[in-house]
Amino acid sequence: MKVLVTGSRGKVGRAAVQAFVDAGHDVLGVDLVRPVFDAGVVVPGRYQQADLTDAGSAYAVVAGVDAVVHVAAIPQPTGNPPHVVFQTNLMSTFNLIEAAVRFGVKRFVNVSSESIVGNFFPERPFLPDYLPVDEKHPLHPQDPYALSKSFGEQLMDAAVRRSDIRAISIRPSTVHNEDNYESNLGAMVRTPDPSSANFGSYIDVYDLADALVLAAESDLPGHEVFYIASPDNAGGHDFAALLHENYGDAIELRPLSRVDASGIDTSKARGMLGWTPKRSWRDYLDADGRRLPA
After folding, report:
1. How far apart are CA 164 and CA 265, in angstroms?
2. Where is the NAD-dependent epimerase/dehydratase domain (predicted)?
């Protein structure tokens, strides 16, 4: 397929481009970073600079592709003014899905977020109704980032109602690669963090990239939503014991697949996408959360 990957110079975008190239697809990467003559050496596939909040630019890059994989976004609500986060994320998604519908693109993969539940950056904190969280859990977004992701998924719903496009929204857990496992998860490996909004869940960037390829290649009809997370929690801690210790009976605990389970249930992605995670924090860190020698 001819695949458009937005945000192709970011952490997830780079891994996604490589995964699609490895799978034999013709990839066009798009990002805000200016192009350089040897970009293909660093990031395989073709590259084009574009601001996707501009409708004309979105139409220009979508024309002629078979699938859109929309990774580009401001990834949290705290580093930019609220209106910038919301406008950037929502309008880039709107412009791309609108262009995809008008050009008859058959597949659209929308990267959403686990924070869509709403308990990650709330002004009025609350706890999940139950754990592990799955796709049936109610959504209560408050912040501009979670709201932008919620509206993005609604845009997918609207697109499949009015066209033959197939859409999949991927909700990744916090994403890590070899460069930041230690800085991001090292402390949590050593000592569980009771304030963690996702209860120690995480995903390796290359496992996420594999899920994006499967989603783009999928023939599932309509719009499906999938959580993507590693099956274990950072540190391999006893999930049920920690939940009871820190929250008592305030959160319903549903059946776990393993003692060191993630706070996210990914059984839907495994069953419907055929996705199987292959990597763990243990591939990068020792039991003390220190980076393993190369």
Report:
1. 29
2. 3-182
Q: Calculate mean pLDDT across residues 183-190.
A: 96
Cα distances from 18 to residues 51, 78, 274, in angstroms, run: 22, 29, 20
Q: For the full predicted model, state whether its pTM sits above 0.85.
A: yes
CB 227, CB 171: distance < 8 Å: yes
In a 10 Å sphere around its CB, with 0-12 CB exposed, 13-18 middle and 19+ buried, how is residue 34 labelled? Answer: exposed
pLDDT score, position 284 = 97
Give backbone dihedrals phi and psi of 212, rounded to 5 degrees, phi first.
Answer: -65, -40
Pick the CATH number of 2-283 from 1.20.1250.20, 1.10.10.10, 3.40.50.360, 3.40.50.720: 3.40.50.720
Q: For residue 188, give the amino acid letter.
A: M
- In 117-222, beta strands by DSSP E: 130-131, 166-172, 175-176, 203-204
Beta-strand runs (E) in 87-240: 107-111, 130-131, 166-172, 175-176, 203-204, 223-228
